[in-house]
Automatic annotation (TrEMBL):
Protein name: Activator of Hsp90 ATPase homologue 1/2-like C-terminal domain-containing protein
Ranges where the Activator of Hsp90 ATPase homologue 1/2-like C-terminal domain occurs: 27-139
CDD domains named among the record's database cross-references: SRPBCC_CalC_Aha1-like_6
TM ranges: none
InterPro entries: ASHA1/2-like_C, START-like_dom_sf
Family: Belongs to the AHA1 family.
SUPFAM superfamilies, alphabetized: Bet v1-like (SSF55961)
Length: 168
């Protein structure tokens, strides 16, 4: 399988960089929102979470498809159903600040994942990971077999490294 690349790296408004990846779904915005916020549904493509969710609160997310399926804390910065979710997470790889932005037009929902980066070089490794996870989301929603990370990394790393050099 050769996965399609959707990620692009752009300069952010505050001297940071935004890695933006997009997927579209023939589904309502409420249904896609449920796929990215309900624990039993996130477990299918990313990992289950536990705790009391809400803006300013921290939940624990189990990285269900990472080696050892570790748990990590995820702070919910903004939650505006069904259009905007901003979170921050810390794990052994560092600090992660991300947003999910959803829009619906004519029965098609577009999901945009924005990963805010202080160092654009992080995109070389994180970009293939997000392409993989978003394709996992698509496959889980469609009831198809989940993709294999080996099809994403290291094959897509050069693409994201080139984007990092272009904006850095």
């Amino acid at each position: 399988m050769t996965p399609k690349l959707t990620g692009r790296l752009v300069g952010g408004a505050t001297g940071t960089y935004d890695m933006v990846l997009t997927r579209t779904f023939r589904a309502s915005i409420d249904d896609v929102w449920a796929s990215v916020t309900e624990s039993d549904r996130t477990a299918r493509w990313f990992g289950a979470w536990r705790g009391e969710a809400g803006p300013g609160r921290t939940v624990e997310v189990q990285m269900g498809f990472e080696e050892g399926t570790p748990w990590c804390e995820l702070r919910i910065e903004v939650c505006e159903p069904p259009r905007h979710l901003a979170v921050s997470m810390r794990d052994e790889a560092g600090d992660w600040r991300m947003e999910l932005r959803l829009t619906e037009d004519g029965g098609v929902t577009t999901l945009e994942l924005v990963h805010h980066l202080a160092d654009p070089a992080v995109a070389e490794n994180a970009g293939p990971g997000w392409e993989y996870y978003l394709d996992m989301l698509v496959a889980a929603r469609d009831g198809r077999p989940l993709p294999d990370f080996a099809d994403y990394y290291p094959a897509q790393a050069a693409y994201f490294a080139a984007q990092a050099r272009a904006v850095g």
